[in-house]
Amino acid sequence: MYRLRFTLIFALVLLPFAGCKLAHSFRSLTPGTIRSGELNRQGNTAMVQGKWEEAEKKLEEAIKINKKDAELRLSYAEALWNLGKHQESLKQLNEALKYDENEAIHLSAAEKELAVGNLKSALRHAEFVVRFAPDNYKGWAICGKARRMSAEMLPKDNENSEKYRQLLEQVKNDYYRCLYCPSAASPSV
């Protein structure tokens, strides 16, 4: 009986505060944010169906409404990438990172920077991923691949031989971590 009374009193004391918080979150649902959410859903559906042009249009319209939605920009960047608009895609990812520095955005940026040959940028994004998610095998794989590609670009002379050896040692460590991450079902980049 005491527990029930305590729980009831506790709930009555905290409920008004929770209600204010709930009411505040519902107030932020404006017609614009609702429309942006609809466009985002339509754009993501189009991407799943491989309709990249349609996805680009829907997501671009959604971003005009909701400029600070990082996940929305991530989806838009993916659509742009699949349309071959690589620089625009990277620009959207960098814009998304201004609003939310999360693992998924950094990982996408790392993959795309690596694909266009921006090795330093790819490594910077991948290192962010593994620093905050050390069990992310894709992050380790990108670190290893970016370092390996950097090592291959070094001139083959005595001056760079130590740097080359150090890079290859880091590559070995990155790939080792990649292979033995708990999340690595079948690591490949």
Give the topology, please.
Elements: H1 2-27, H2 31-48, H3 52-65, H4 70-82, H5 86-99, H6 103-115, H7 119-132, H8 137-153, H9 161-179
Polypeptide structure, described:
The chain has 189 residues and is mainly alpha-helical. Mean pLDDT is 83; it is low at 4-27. It is 78% helix and 0% strand. It has nine helices and no strands.
Poorly predicted residue ranges: 4-27
By DSSP (H or I, 4+ residues per run), the number of helices equals 9
Helicity range of the residues? over 70%
Give the helix/strand class. mainly alpha
Number of strands: 0
The N- and C-terminal alpha carbons lie at a distance of 60 Å
Mean pLDDT: 83
Main sheet overview: none
Q: Strand share of the residues?
A: under 5%
Q: Taking Cα atoms only, what radius of gyration do you get, to the nearest Å?
A: 23 Å
The rough form would be described as elongated
